[in-house]
Amino acid sequence: LPLVLLWSRAIEAAVLVSVDDEWRYTNSIVLAPDAPWTQSEFPDSAWPVGRSGFGATHYGEQTWFSSLPGNWSNMAFRRKFVLPTTNGLGTLILRIDYRDAFVAHLNGREVARRGFTLPPHVPVPLNAFPLPRSAGNPEEIRLGNAADLLVPGTNVLAIQVHSDSDLDRPALVP
């Protein structure tokens, strides 16, 4: 599924995280429930690296999960990016395509979620079971003012993706 994080003002827009960028990812089973994996300082250098989109089909994914052993139905993805300043940034938009469900975090703060029945103020556990949804229908989600969500220097977009089956692999296109 494609994921693009961008900022926009009235006419101009810039892509901060784009399709084809390299991401770090892992099976969420290996993460402790309270692991701060959504924070920029979290050590992820041991995680595999792959280019987005991610999935287990033949629909344009660049990183395939079809041959991963075990249960990879819930996964965690991280992409760091650097901003010299947050001055002059407008609204952040997350453009994302996914199968089943996801929760997106910017610098440790939840900014979007889809596919869960939990109330918005309740954190989504890494092992939560999602509602089913087919990929192929991207969404554009307004996240808010970039200056409120980003910092000068290193930022991290962290996404947990959930599949509704132990046999399926998550699909995400950032």
Walkthrough of the structure:
Helices cover 2% and strands 42% of the residues. The mean pLDDT is 79. The termini are close together. It has 174 residues and is mainly β. A six-stranded antiparallel beta sheet has the order 4-3-7-12-9-10, with no helix packed on it. Strands 1, 2, 8, 11 and 13 form a five-stranded antiparallel beta sheet that branches. It has a two-stranded parallel ribbon with strand order 5-6. The chain contains one helix and 13 strands; from the N terminus they run βββββββββββαββ.
Q: Which percent band covers the strand fraction?
A: 35-45%
Strand-and-helix sequence, N→C?
Answer: EEEEEEEEEEEHEE
The helix/strand class is mainly beta
Radius of gyration: 15 Å
Summarize the structure.
With 174 residues, this protein is mainly beta. It contains 1 helix and 13 strands. Strands 4-3-7-12-9-10 form a 6-stranded antiparallel beta sheet, with no helix packed on it. Strands 1, 2, 8, 11 and 13 form a 5-stranded antiparallel beta sheet that branches. It has a two-stranded parallel sheet with strand order 5-6.
Task: Please name the defining characteristics of this protein.
six-stranded antiparallel β-sheet, mainly beta, five-stranded antiparallel β-sheet, 13 strands, 174 residues, globular
Summarize the SSE layout with pairings:
Layout: E1 3-8, E2 13-17, E3 22-27, E4 49-51, E5 54-55, E6 63-64, E7 74-83, E8 91-98, E9 101-106, E10 109-114, E11 139-145, H1 146-149, E12 153-162, E13 172-173
Parallel strand pairs: 5-6
Antiparallel strand pairs: 1-2, 1-8, 3-4, 3-7, 7-12, 8-11, 8-13, 9-10, 9-12
